[in-house]
Amino acid sequence: MKKLTARQQQFLDFIREYIDKHSFPPSIREIQGHFDLRSTKGVKDHIDRLVACGYLKRVDGAARALEVVGSRYKGDDRVPLVGTVAAGLPILADENIEDYLPVPSGPPRTRGMFYLRVSGDSMVGAAILEGDLVLVRPQPFVEQGEIAVVRIGDEATVKRFFKFSDRIELHSENPKYDPIVCRRGDEEIRVIGRVAAVFRELE
């Protein structure tokens, strides 16, 4: 690798330290703010040089598309834990990232995925219990009967998803809960993603 200037080394050190702390790289704006630069052009010029010298690598399709060559974090090692989702009556899903957690095994492509912590007991028949973490793959559509995270207005819930010509039904896996039925003209409903895996801490 080519030797870096002092300024380039500062940029690389900041990016490496940021990744070590957060498990994901800083955005262009965050780098700009850290070095108090007037525009993003200077940031991009330094990044281009670090890429050309082999110290950084761009990750295609990622929002924060930088990877430090040789870093122990490869972009997909950890995914964010985003608030709580209800598995009983729907509650507001807090969109603040609480933490970054590893994916122990399973899906080889984790970019864009996230964890949600389950609240409630409506999905116990699908072995999704109170306090479990569901790993969600973002997608706007799911197949009939798949378990999905669905937003209803400003609230989110995890249920089996069924779409009919005149309505959408969200089914629990607990007989004490009736299906949630949404018809045209009701609150806006949107599929957030499909539940790909469930993780549970055992004492």
Q: State which percent range the strand residues make up.
A: 25-35%
The tally of structural domains comes to 2
CATH homology group of the largest domain: Umud Fragment, subunit A
List unreliable stretches of 5+ residues. Answer: 71-76, 91-95
Radius of gyration: 21 Å
Write down the secondary-structure element order: HHHEEEEEEEEEEE
Structural class: alpha+beta
Order of strands in the sheet with the most strands? 4-3-5-6-11-7-8-9-10
**CATH fold-type name of the largest domain:** Umud Fragment, subunit A
CATH top level label of the largest domain? Mainly Beta
The major pleated sheet works out as: 9 strands, mixed
Report the count of strand segments.
11
Number of helices: 3
| Global morphology | elongated
SSE diagram, text form:
Layout: H1 6-22, H2 28-34, H3 41-52, E1 56-58, E2 66-68, E3 78-86, E4 97-102, E5 114-119, E6 133-138, E7 147-152, E8 155-163, E9 167-171, E10 180-183, E11 189-199
Parallel strand pairs: 3-5
Antiparallel strand pairs: 1-2, 3-4, 5-6, 6-11, 7-8, 7-11, 8-9, 9-10
